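Budget justification note: compute hours in this period were largely spent on complex prediction jobs such as the one shown. Inputs:
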Amino acid sequence: MDGLSLAGRTALVTGGAGGIGTAICADLAGLGARVVVADLDEEAARATAAGLPDAVAERVDLADPASIDDLAARAGRVDVLVNNAGVGIVEPFVDSDPASWDLMWRINLRAPMYLTRLLLPGMRGWGRLVFISSDGARAGSGGEGAYAATKAGLFGLAKTLAREAARQGVTSNVVCPGPTDTPMQRAVAERHPGLVDKLARGIPLRRIGRPDDVAGLVAFLCTDRAGYITGQTLSVSGGITMC
Ligand SMILES: NC(=O)c1ccc[n+]([C@@H]2O[C@H](COP(=O)([O-])OP(=O)(O)OC[C@H]3O[C@@H](n4cnc5c(N)ncnc54)[C@H](O)[C@@H]3O)[C@@H](O)[C@H]2O)c1
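Corresponding output:
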């Protein structure tokens, strides 16, 4: 199939050293992109980049706008931006601490806004924006009120950018993972024994997701073959969310 190559393109993936981020970096690299693996965990970012044919690791603290400024300056021209990094603090909303809301707002929503604002002007003629949200934001999820609120903000941002940037050849889409086997998910599962089995029983395809499941769609959205897909919100969740 033609139109799947990303040769000559540079892709920046935030949280590129995490579970889903590493898989996204690998798939984008597999299509020929040069990859910037941007993460708070510098050592893990280096390890991810070292396993790819053409990649660099960049440390960034997405909670800090000055650190995002530095990342954008070091990255140079970026054709594909995957705003993937995220943090989730799971607790009943009435017991939740506004300090944790603030952390999630800064990393999950403000950072994608801030970084996209810096990099989008450089995407002249061709570009791809992908925002990693969550099925928790589409459908609601117990204990994830503040997290879902920050992730739902990405829907409005991505759709607006799909309209504003269409004429400069840039598409903007949201991918929503369902429960996916990553360090983030395992941290939640450790505190709630039996959760993974319970989740899997409720998923039509009867298993929780793997990082590769998400990465395949993200990589496709970044190709020329997906050039007519913009402003969309797509779930990768084994059918748990159908809307
Ligand atoms: N795993 C799931 O079940 C699931 C479900 C729905 C949505 N998501 C979303 O998918 C995305 C990836 O999640 P994951 O499960 O791979 O998580 P993960 O915890 O495995 O990876 C997240 C990565 O983000 C990085 N990161 C965290 N804070 C950062 C900061 N301040 N600056 C820079 N980097 C930072 C971490 O170092 C880590 O490498 C997140 O946005 C998450 O909300 C995950």
